[in-house]
């Protein structure tokens, strides 16, 4: 299927794209927004810079190369695919950056292909030689010694050859379906009896490690091993040429929730269709014969501008296998998070009693510097095992494959507790896993709901109701990251553990809204999307403007993954023009132009990337001398503010509010290494004397040693 063959009506929401925005409606400059897609490409370029940074441990640079490749795959599967479908479906309205989607598509393809070439050059010119110096050799088949080739050949015959399925193309064998992101060999063979050439395809099996070890520290790509033994697959045929290629397909989902009798079944049906999405990119080796490339382009229905010629090997996601090698001296120094100091106070030979700790004070945990296992995970586990706990209510957006959180909820339900779990089965690329969790939880007796029709539930919430001697008491966790013990060791996130009556009352109302038909959307301590989160942020920015004009302390510090929402950006421009200092820490996409005279000269935008993925969302306001801080799940994007259930909670403690404000100030300090955004959209890396994540690791270790 080609893009032009897509049928059915389309709307902007169908593609998870930003709604039309007309800058002409404002007195502000019409070119005040950067393009979202190009900003994302600039983010992934920053990831590639880490792979090129020779001051980082070598295997960490290898890991960043794999992360870059994985990021770019998803960009094509979702964003490029969405642009193509918008154009084909006739909803190609200009973005807020004033660029036509066709122009955005063209620029995105050009920029991303340039980055792919840079990645290949980084691999060949820098990583491969550096690895070789450390005794890790990534070799071609011809570079192996005869004894190594013999050893690999034996492994191939025993473990690889039986798995392969050669697919020939002739009148009786149509061109095979090429699955998305699979690595393949395109073969041209000649029948020595007839002299006729034939085409065949061999899929490189993904269930076998990509890098085969020939000898200690000497590796060869699996596809080269397959190519060296093609005579076993096609006996009697003469192999004329073989070339690696890879296809990326549109893998975004379209589920018409309003028409679905059962959302779970509708999503399962759509997951089957995902495998057959139209192609959006074809990666081939530079050496590929033009006639073979023409055949692939024709059969796949791909456009010439969507073909990327690269110096192999293709699909460098597989470098994760090399990054996983047992060479600790080539990695970051190990860091094991410890128990938060306020929980450690009540920790003896047994795990901490979190309920006792939370009756004394709120606890603000900062992962991965504070252990997830001894805080958030322990909170759910203790609630499940405690006979005084009557009910547990929780949202699940993403979790790990062997989740102790899921097991605890199952145990709680089986012990007779009321357990409500809101599983977001539309979490992109985790849909199948979340369907499995939902069914497991249902079988255990949990009440499982899928949120609200038309909205994704992205908030990270847990509420525990406990029967205590002085009556019922509620405890809660509100976080910025998922309930995933594995990513909690790699993602930077905050979580508030609290027994604050106002917050837990708000969460009770919110869960009732999510599971039933309650219509109470007023909250004391929460900002909740889509009803009031954007408005709440705008009001607080207005407050800072008023404070500044009145001569009171004013300032805004925001840390999010992405900043795209034009209404919020325009309000930040207004704050800057009024003289309010605005500091933004944006990991990924930012369409605001900082430092533009008369528009944004009081706005600074920094980006921090490193060992841990900066994932927390923090909003801090000076408040005229009475600062307030909010944490939660919401980025400043249309999907977060308009098409998701998101929650920000106001941090109750003055101590925590101050700590969050100081951390954000440290993030934008000139001595802190970060990337700085200029008004023209370019990012420049500024290497300071302090790496923030290293500093926070050192502080965490120092606290544990006291």
Automatic annotation (TrEMBL):
Keywords, alphabetical: ATP-binding, Kinase, Magnesium, Metal-binding, Nucleotide-binding, Phosphoprotein, Transferase
Entry superkingdom: Bacteria
Protein EC: 2.7.4.1
Alphabetical list of InterPro entries matching this protein: PP_kinase (IPR003414), PP_kinase_C_1 (IPR041108), PP_kinase_middle (IPR024953), PP_kinase_middle_dom_sf (IPR036830), PPK_C_dom2 (IPR025200), PPK_N_dom (IPR025198), PPK_N_dom_sf (IPR036832)
Binding residues annotated for ATP, in chain numbering: 71, 491, 587, 615
Reaction catalyzed: [phosphate](n) + ATP = [phosphate](n+1) + ADP
Entry-linked CDD domains: PLDc_PaPPK1_C1_like, PLDc_PaPPK1_C2_like
GO biological process: polyphosphate biosynthetic process
UniProt keyword annotation of Lipid metabolism present: no
Reported modifications of this chain: An intermediate of this reaction is the autophosphorylated ppk in which a phosphate is covalently linked to a histidine residue through a N-P bond.
GO molecular function: ATP binding; metal ion binding; polyphosphate kinase activity
One annotated Gene Ontology cellular component of this protein: polyphosphate kinase complex
Pfam families the UniProt entry points to: PP_kinase, PP_kinase_C, PP_kinase_C_1, PP_kinase_N
Recorded family membership: Belongs to the polyphosphate kinase 1 (PPK1) family.
Protein name (record): Polyphosphate kinase
Lineage: Bacteria, Bacillati, Actinomycetota, Actinomycetes, Propionibacteriales
